[in-house]
Design a protein that fits this description.
Helix content is 14%, strand content 31%. The protein is an alpha+beta fold. The structure holds heme C (HEC).
């Protein structure tokens, strides 16, 4: 005991009792960061192979509660072997041990830089921005939801925001009310509380629809995408009716989909991702994952759904061959749904969703595996639809809106898609079923998870890490 105290005392003395004359104040010069060669090599590898899922800023990735350990050995094992049933892919086939060591060095550099890193290209939220001749500012609406996955406006102007972590907030002015009696969700990895939409007759029936990752009632290891309908009360949900459940349940915790949009036909369209089982689900009409579904608002099946006559097919299927669609809108000109979906590495797509169509995943794709290996050389095939647009490299699309508002005249009739990977909003004119050239709005704004246009014509974007919702306020000259 005595010895320990003695050593601590010595340490104290030597650290703090330096002669005053030795104190040299640091000159306020911003140093150019020069990375050690293995760290620089790791940076290139990280940007090429990892940023699609983990973002381009390693400091932001490193600033987390580590699940599989952050010692060099543990990080190397994660990269080599993969985790979470392939949600974090194995890179053993593609990266040799030198490359993995370089990545480990870069991630450790990121860990050491957390908190003191000076993001040179920091986005300025408080300035006036401009895009396609439209000047605007960003107004912070709420920071209540950590991952603002879905948004829906009430006729009163209040905003419902889902938080993937398992909550739903009602934002009224400065107040964020956490709704009671929301569904129990599995909020692991990509799962949790997902989208929310109002009934087209909400003003008279107060019905709302919520999609979420549901845990199997008898086996906590299994989950699926489900949709329930509720009556919205002042501060909670009541009268739950489950109207949709994708089958089979899966043990993975990714690729749930699941956007909700009502069509002009009054039916509810639901996207469901392939749950990471690309060889089992998207092309198999007896299984719900990897599809766009269409149901009536009470969960029953419209008579004219494309596969109702096939006794083996899941009757709610509207289109198939999808990977993980996390954005969908209705094109007001045609009434058709448009959805984007995450590709693997490269090959994110925008598709016009037409009854009975096969969108080809994983038989045709413009992407390759995350670990650089190829799973298909085909990009087109008879009987499979071509995307209206595809992104190589992947942008990680989430959230979609179609601008009908007069508030941003130059953006009217444009399709907006959020980018998780690069943190911008993709903007493309959509008229008469065809897409024009892409421009990028709000580059560097942060991981864009959701986008909606409010009933009074304003656009709102939901960002994560940290979670915020901003209103895009036009500045009129
Ligand atoms: C397809 C998306 C994807 C890609 C590509 C990807 N990862 Fe991951 N990674 C994940 C997911 C999802 C997890 C979380 C796994 C879990 O929850 O167990 C993860 C976890 C990790 C972890 C463990 C974090 C912890 O909490 O312990 C490390 C380290 C990691 N990834 C490094 C990398 C590196 C390095 C690369 C590039 C060589 C990479 N990842 C590429 C999806 C990805």
């Amino acid at each position: 005991m005595r010895i320990v105290v003695f050593i601590i005392t010595l340490g104290w003395v030597s650290t703090f009792c330096t002669p005053a004359g030795n104190e040299v104040s640091e000159p306020a010069v911003k140093m150019e960061v020069v990375l050690a060669p293995e760290v620089a090599a790791g940076k290139d590898l990280f940007e090429a192979n990892c940023s699609g899922c983990h973002g381009v800023k390693v400091q932001a990735f490193a600033d987390q509660r580590w699940k599989h350990g952050n010692s060099p050995e543990e990080i190397a094992a994660t990269i080599r072997e993969g985790r979470a049933e392939g949600a974090m892919p194995s890179f053993a086939a593609m990266l040799d041990s030198m490359a993995i060591q370089n990545l480990v060095a870069y991630i450790q550099y990121g860990i050491n830089q957390v908190g003191e890193y000076d993001f040179e290209d920091e986005f300025d939220y408080d300035t006036i921005h401009s895009h396609l001749g439209q000047a605007f500012t960003l107004e912070l609406v709420t920071e209540a939801a950590e991952v603002p996955w879905g948004m829906a406006f009430l006729p009163t102007g209040a905003l419902l925001v889902t938080d993937r972590n398992g909550k739903i907030f009602k934002i009224e002015g400065q107040e964020a009310i956490e709704l009671k009696n929301v569904p129990q969700v599995n909020s692991k990895n990509q799962g949790g509380m997902l989208d929310i939409v109002l009934d087209p007759e909400f003003a008279s029936n107060q019905l709302v629809y919520v999609s979420y990752s549901k845990v199997h009632p008898e086996d906590a290891e299994l989950t699926t995408t489900a949709v329930s309908r509720y009556v919205l009360t002042e501060n909670g949900l009541e009268d739950a009716v489950e109207i949709f459940e994708a089958t089979p349940y899966e043990s993975t915790n990714h690729h749930f989909g699941s956007r909700l949009v009502f069509g002009d036909d009054g039916y509810l369209y639901i996207t469901v991702g392939d749950r990471g089982k690309r060889d089992d689900n998207p092309q198999d009409l007896t299984r719900s994952p990897g599809k766009v579904h269409r149901i009536k608002s009470d969960g029953t099946i419209p008579d004219d759904n494309p596969f109702v006559a096939d006794p083996n097919a899941v009757a709610s299927i509207y289109s198939y061959g999808h990977r993980n669609p996390q954005g969908m809108i209705k094109d007001p000109a045609t009434g058709n749904m448009w959805a984007h979906e995450h590709g693997p590495r490269g090959g994110d797509e925008i598709n016009e969703i037409v009854a009975g169509n096969n969108y080809g995943w994983p038989v045709i794709s413009y992407g390759i595996n995350y670990n650089g290996t190829v799973f298909t050389t085909e990009t087109e095939r008879e009987g499979m639809e071509q995307p209206k647009h595809y992104w190589v490299p992947s942008i990680g699309p989430s959230g979609m809106a179609y601008v009908t508002s007069e508030r941003y005249p130059n953006w009217k009739n444009h399709l907006l898609s959020g980018s998780l990977k690069y943190g911008f909003v993709s903007v493309m004119p959509l008229r008469g079923g065809s897409l024009g050239d892409e421009t990028r709005l709000l580059e560097g704004v942060g991981r864009t998870r959701s986008i909606v246009q409010s009933p009074d014509g304003y656009l709102y974007i939901g960002l994560e890490r940290p979670g915020r919702v901003y209103k895009i306020v036009p500045v009129s000259e």
